Amino acid sequence: MPISEAEPSSGGIRRLTMTETTHIATRRRPRQRVGTAIALVCATLLALVAAPRATGAPQNHLTPILDCIDVAGDGSITAHFGYTNTWQNQVTVPAGKQPPGQQNWFNPLPADRGQPSQFQPGTHTYVFTVTFTPTAANPTLEWWLSDVNNEFQIATASASSPRCTPVPAAGLDSPWPVLLSVVGIGAALALRQRRLARGGA
Fold it and tell me: Domain coordinates of the chain in residue numbers?
């Protein structure tokens, strides 16, 4: 049977009735639940902040490379091309393939100028050459290349591209002083032989 009135204890301390005890416990429970929920939210946020972020793997590509050019006396340019394949396996892109999709073509046309269709992993230089004559309308030659990523790369050849054999300056690096010296020595020896022959006669 519940106690309806407070009963004094022997020490003078008032005892709580059953009704008062139940009322106090009921008032404390919501506060405890709110505190527990806040603690859980804080712990979750701390875990998300402290967790290491996953880094995406670098995307692989096919990249065309212009190694250098040779310029002929008639103004034509021979461009030397290579490529880099960062994939771990061979990648096949048909020569002359234009968008949409994979690309492996030259601009200006023709699209197929002898470039490879199969690309081995790694970097490969001086794979093939293309000879062209720049004009006012088309001063450059562009090799467009892409793989399944559809992110194309362009290698451009023009008269201002790096030369395979640097043009020597008219100084110590020029072959003309050496040639002139050889010619001069040869002329001097020939003249001396003539004089000796006349003296002997």
Answer: 1-48, 62-157
Radius of gyration of the chain (CA): 44
Residues 154 and 143 sit within 8 Å (Cβ to Cβ): yes
For residue 81, the surrounding DSSP H or E stretch is strand 77-85
The whole-angstrom separation of Cα 13 and Cα 169 is: 112
Reported as a pLDDT band with limits 50, 70 and 90, residue 181 is low
| Contact present, 135 and 128 (Cβ < 8 Å) | no
CB atoms within 10 A of CB 180: 10
3-state helix, strand, coil in the chain (%, to 5): 30, 25, 45
Region 48-70: mean pLDDT is 70
Looking at domain 62-157, which CATH architecture does it have?
Answer: Sandwich (2.60)
Nearest CA-CA partner of 155 in 140, 137, 167: 140
Q: What is this structure's pTM?
A: 0.55
| H helix intervals, the chain | 18-50, 176-200
Nearest by Cα to 108 from 135, 126, 86, 90: 135
| Segment 80-104, tens digit of pLDDT | 999 999 999 999 999 999 888 889 9
At residue 53, the pLDDT reads 43
- Range scoring the smallest mean pLDDT among 72-76, 122-126, 144-148: 144-148
